[in-house]
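question for whoever is on the cluster today: can someone run the full assembly for these? two chains, 588 residues total. i dont have access anymore since they changed the login thing
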Amino acid sequence: MKANVIRLKHMINLKKSNSGVKKSYVPYLFILPWIAGFLFFTIGPLIFSLIMSFFDWPIVGDVKFIGFSNYIRAFTSDKMFYHSMGVTFKFALIFVPLYILIALSLALLLNNEVKGKSAFKTIFYLPSVISGVAVSMIWIWIFDVNYGVINYLLSLVNITGPNWLGDPKWAIFAMVIASLWGQGTMVLIFLAALKDIPKEYYEAASIDGAGAIGRFFKITLPLITPAILFNLIMTIISAFQQLTLALVMTKGGPSNSTYFYAMHVYNNAFKHFEMGYASANAWIMFVLILTLTLLVFKSSSAWVYYESDGKK
Amino acid sequence: MNKMSWPKKIFIYSFLVFFSTLFLFPYFWTITSAFKSASELNAYPPVWIPTKWHFENFYNAWTSQPFTRYLINSVIIVIGTTMGQVVSCSLVAYGFARFKFKGRDTLFIILLATMMIPWDVTMIPLYMQFNFLGWINTLKPLIIPSWFGSPFYIFMLRQFLMGIPKDIEEAAMIDGANPFQIYLRIIMPLIKPALVLIGVFNTLAVWNDYLGPLIFLNDNAKYTLTLGLAQFKGIGGDIKMAAIMAVTTIICIPPTIAFFFAQKQIVDGITQTGIK
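^ ran it for u. tokens below:
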């Protein structure tokens, strides 16, 4: 059998050398769908949007080249630009650390010999598979000012709950809570990273007299920093693109307290039909996300621990 | 390590149960609310379990809007895109995984890099493009792009293919099969589990999508279920919350079933590739 395979491989090598040149277009035929899609739906639109950002481009009417005016307008005279940027940063600053902290805690809890582990995993993951619109509806009802169950539960412990979605101070927290519900993916990634830590490390540390807390900070935490880095980047990107929940739950209100930057882009394009200005806004966001990602990556050499090769 | 002490055990289980309750509660509240009468819905303190289960809430909510039409549109999009992704992504993944050609690695890096482009940047030119083609307010912009592959699914399939030995294909080649026959007869059956997984991922993404339909559709008759639900809430003041909760419950059922159907693959898929 094995000899057969070796003989076959030998024959294929011979065959390949004969037909390699003749059939060289074949691989391109297979990847053609993606190349076409890349041109028409990715790089084409990307270049198109960069060009549009230098034009006054209403959806109907004349198109006019205006140089950097759209960018200048965003940075100098558009109050909502800074406001929406502020809302987005505020959301990200509250949401990202909480998200990672909770996901990590859940993963640490699950990384024990517990009964019903797969049931718990399912429970934590399930909210991630349902639609943003459905999530919004569910939380709108929970946060309802008159009949919201969350304020009833708070009243049981003598707390008077705020008007979650109607109070500019609280609406963004309501949105953070609703977003935190979709933890599942991060929990699974952390759990996989935790499982990869060799048991011997803990045993050796125990013998050296390290306590549970010492083991966590000396072994667990350093070894899962790559997973933290990955989750951090994904969470930052998703926080900056937050749109569905804001559109459905609050429409940016009250008093624009949940008017996210992505909503500003959306409104400029599809409410005010200023396609050129909206494109400039979108590019500012793109560059911002790339910069943040790059900064996180740069910083990672200081805090992410990679086991020198040998690890699969 | 194996045997946990009692205090630790109690600590871990109580936290797990606490968090599980928090995570499950919104479902419980949604589903029970969907069955409540108007007075129970607005009762204070809240009624946890409806005294009478009002199944007619579902019927009334569903028929108060053309939700059947929306459902049909959603199903058309799900089927159309899933077929598109399965065919196009498998072709492209096979091309990248099994052939050596000029520029392959560069192209693959470009493919991975395109996953980083935020949708906000391309949505505006795409809207203009589809507007130019006369596709706005049709289902085309929501279906046709999927026939050109999606980087993440291509990446998943290619990783899967890299893990499969080439012996069978090589034997078939000796028997005179051409690359396309190999793709159809050998590769497709071999990568079936991975195809099921991208089918499930795609179904979830498309079924749940709100922004695509919101931007590309404006005629009521073309709406998808998510879009229909979102605008349902905006209609008038006297829409009862029970009706919204009923439709919300219905909308959550297919993704939940899809999840249970492919739970193991989804969990493995996420942990291997690291991305949803």
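summary bc i know u wont read the tokens: The first strand of chain A starts at residue 55 and ends at 56. Residues 69 and 171 of chain A are 34 Å apart (CA to CA).
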